[in-house]
Amino acid sequence: MSVASASVPTVLKKSLTWSIVVSVLMIVAGILAIIVPPIAGIVVTVFVGWLLVFSAGAHFVFAWHARATRGAIWEVLVGILYLLVGGYMLINPVLGMVSLTFALAIYFVVEAVLEFVLSYRLRPMPGSGWLLFDGIITAILAIIIFATWPLSSAWAIGTLAGISMLFSGAARLMLSLAARRAVTELT
Questions:
Q1: Could you list the residue range(s) of the whole structural domain that residue 70 is in?
Q2: Does residue 150 have a cis peptide bond before it, meaning omega lies within 30 degrees of 0?
Q3: Is 2 part of any domain?
Q4: What are 111-167's pLDDT values in tens digits?
Q5: Residue 137 contacts by C-beta under 8 Å, 6 or more apart in sequence?
Q6: Is residue 153 in some structural domain?
Q7: In whole angstroms, what is the distance from residue 170 CA to residue 187 CA?
Q8: Does residue 3 form part of some domain?
């Protein structure tokens, strides 16, 4: 049966079924990442390494196309940096994960400071206290990672990726189930 001959509710139900399956897989992957964070951390590190290597290739291609401009040399230099860092993460994923964890802790410090500033600037508005709360939690997480670094590398990246996958999967599952109920009510 082609898509053109299928009814809209049938196509929607089939799409929603796949959405539910993917959501459940995300939840399972998130739980596994939380249970075994070092393995999940290595997987994330290798993934980031490949992203950097492919980004290096994109910088080199752009530099080639912009070779007549003064910015081409900078594109090549950025590409070399991406290639070196990405290659480092792929060749030595454990040390890459340690470096990535350190970078994550620095990111959390910067994020916490920005959340504090934003909550102060928006303090007369209702709900601005949530920004302060977010800043406090983020600062605590940064302190925990820094205080236990490099040992925190074994759990930080994998656990955070697992939590993210778990909540993303749960949110998408709830959305898909609600959409399925709405489609069923329409038919």
A1: 8-186
A2: yes
A3: no
A4: 899 989 988 888 887 777 888 888 898 899 889 999 999 888 889 888 988 888 898
A5: none
A6: yes
A7: 26
A8: no
Torsion angle, alpha carbons of 110, 115, 121, 122, to 10? 160
The answer to whether 76 and 60 have CB atoms below 8 angstroms apart is yes
The number of folded domains in the chain is 1
The residue-averaged pLDDT of 53-77 equals: 89
Q: Is residue 141 part of a domain?
A: yes
Residue-wise pLDDT for 163-187, tens only, equals 888 988 888 888 888 878 887 787 7
Largest CA-CA distance found in the chain, in angstroms, rounded: 61
pTM of the model: 0.73
Q: What residues contact 65, with CB distance under 8 A and at least 6 apart? A: none
Question: SS3 sequence, the chain?
Answer: CCCCCCCHHHHHHHHHHHHHHHHHHHHHHHHHHHHCHHHHHHHHHHHHHHHHHHHHHHHHHHHHHCCCCCCHHHHHHHHHHHHHHHHHHHHCHHHHHHHHHHHHHHHHHHHHHHHHHHHHHCCCCCCHHHHHHHHHHHHHHHHHHHHHCCHHHHCHHHHHHHHHHHHHHHHHHHHHHHHHHHHHHHC
Q: Give residue 6's pLDDT.
A: 62
> Within a 13 Å sphere around the CA of 8, how many CA atoms are in the beta-carbon half?
3
**8 A C-beta contact, residue 123 and residue 107:** no
